[in-house]
Specification:
Blueprint (H helix, E strand, L loop, with lengths): L8 H49 L1 E4 L2 E4 L3 H7 L7 E6 L5 E4 L18 E7 L2 E12 L6 E10 L1 H51 L19 H52 L3 H30 L6 E4 H18 L3 E6 L4 E4 L1 H18 L5 E9 L4 E8 L29 H11 L3 E6 L5 E8 L2
Parallel strand pairs: 9-11
Antiparallel strand pairs: 1-2, 3-4, 3-7, 5-6, 6-7, 8-10, 11-12, 12-14, 13-14
GO molecular function: kinase activity
Protein name: histidine kinase
Organism: Acidovorax benzenivorans
Length: about 475
């Protein structure tokens, strides 16, 4: 089952760090707006309280009557700003209009206004919110006591304007601080995740080594990293050690088993061949021939297992001439090819320097030629070819034949262990697997493609020296 990766750790950290910051920034802006409104309202209240007391002082009782000494200049000052005018109303008794603006609403009915104390409340005039200051004053004689009400109202536009100006002055620096904090958080997250990036890079470099799968992977080393990353690296190192021990045990078992089987199989083959020479009964010879064929196949399998174990061992590379090595191996197989009615030859460059292990490359080419001789069929032409392949400066070592080939859908199975292209006797399905192991050991890769009109090309691409 394929697992889809979730959100990256970097995105999660940024989300959990920047999202609360955004929420706090918006909350701070709203709180600043509310504080600005409250401060504006407080300033309006102070102004209205002073205005209503000053206006009340301008109304002087004379006997049972009133003298309103309110100059025209003061009235002009109160009403000089149409957008933020201050209006007033004088009534006696309260609610009975005497002068000013008759539209000022009374205070809420459930409020008991104390004489001589300013009372503040909100109302609406011309469908606009206003703040009203109210002051009740007693006047007249003891027998004819009367009450005078003075109201002064101011539009709340000034409060909103003050709050808006304050908020505008705060938003810009708060925005800059938010951006700066976001940048610091982003840089901190990137810096904090660098040890994980280095750990990932070390694992990728270790996985890309040419000898991957043949020698234990090097341990992960982090000189400076948080404790959690060190713990992760230590866990990975313990896992690598466990895998390396398992590989070593498997290689030792394979090598020991193959060595233990070589001697009895060689004795079985020798004794069977002697029995074939000494026996003259057809039935006995037929049975002995089957025993000999089975013993030879077993010996060939043991040999291939030994070569497989050798290809997975840690060996040292050296400078070689790949073309000279290929010509030498082709000459060694020429006699067997002629005996089987096939034409084996070499084509390619005269010299091709490369870095490799001669014994392993020789074994790989032996397996390629043996595979071609086994499956190409009588009369086939087999060519060992060495040359350059661009781009990338690759050295190409392949064996071509004009035999029946392999269906295109099975080309990818050629290098699988114990896979065979036909039921023809002989072979154990390990030869090309060994070729692939040797190619990987040299930092290269295998090649398998069909030829036109028929045939097969199998080999290796190796880094040129």
């Amino acid at each position: 089952m394929r697992h889809v990766p979730g959100v990256s750790l970097q995105r999660k950290l940024l989300l959990w760090l920047l999202l609360p910051q955004l929420v706090l920034w918006l909350s701070g802006g709203f709180l600043a707006w509310r504080i600005a409104l409250q401060n504006g309202e407080k300033g309006i209240d102070q102004t209205l309280t002073q205005s209503v007391r000053a206006l009340a002082r301008q109304i002087k009782p004379i006997g049972d009557g009133l003298l309103v000494d309110f100059p025209k200049a003061a009235q002009d000052i109160l009403e000089q700003d149409p957008a933020d005018r201050i209006t007033y109303m004088v009534s006696s008794p309260p609610g009975r209009f005497l002068l000013g603006n008759a539209q000022l609403p009374p205070p809420p009915a459930q409020v008991d206004v104390a004489v001589g104390e300013a009372f503040l409340y909100q109302a609406r005039v011309d469908d606009k919110p206003v703040r009203v200051a109210l002051l009740d004053v007693d006047y007249g004689t003891a027998s004819t006591r009367q009450r005078l009400r003075v109201q002064v109202a101011q539009s709340l536009t000034v409060r909103e304007r003050i709050a808006q100006e304050l908020l505008e002055r705060m938003v810009f620096p708060m925005g800059l601080m938010g951006l700066a904090l976001s940048a610091v958080v982003y840089a901190g997250v990137l810096r904090g995740l660098q040890p994980l990036k280095r750990l990932e890079a070390q694992i990728e470099r270790a996985g890309a080594l040419p000898h991957t799968g043949t020698t234990p992977l090097p341990p992960i080393e982090l000189t400076s990293a948080p404790q959690e990353v060190h713990s992760l690296a230590s866990t990975i190192n313990r896992l690598l050690e466990t895998v390396a021990r398992g590989q070593q045990k498997e290689k030792r078992f394979l090598n020991d088993a193959a060595h233990q089987l070589r001697t009895p199989l060689a004795g079985l083959i020798g004794q069977t061949e002697l029995a074939l020479h000494e026996s003259h009964e057809p039935e006995v010879q037929a049975r002995l021939q089957k025993v000999l064929s089975a013993a030879q196949r077993s010996a060939h399998l043991v040999h291939q297992l030994l070569q497989l174990a050798r290809s997975e061992s840690n060996v040292v590379m050296q400078s070689i001439d790949l073309a000279a090595l290929a010509r030498e191996v082709a000459r060694e197989w020429a006699a067997r090819a002629l005996a089987q009615g096939m034409d084996l030859g070499y084509e390619g460059v005269d010299h091709l320097p490369a870095q490799g292990h001669p014994l392993l490359l020789r074994e790989a080419l032996n397996n390629l030629i043996d595979n071609a001789l086994h499956y190409a069929g009588p009369g086939a032409t087999i060519t060992v070819r060495v040359g350059h392949e661009e781009p990338g400066h690759w050295a190409l070592l392949v064996v071509e034949d004009d035999g029946p080939g392999v269906p295109a859908e099975h080309l990818g199975d050629l290098f699988a262990r114990f896979w065979r292209g036909s039921d023809k006797a002989g072979g154990c399905g390990l030869g090309l697997s060994i070729v692939e192991e040797i190619a990987l050991r040299h930092g290269g890769r295998t090649v398998a493609e069909g030829l036109v009109p028929k045939g097969l090309r199998v080999g290796m691409r190796l880094p040129a020296g």
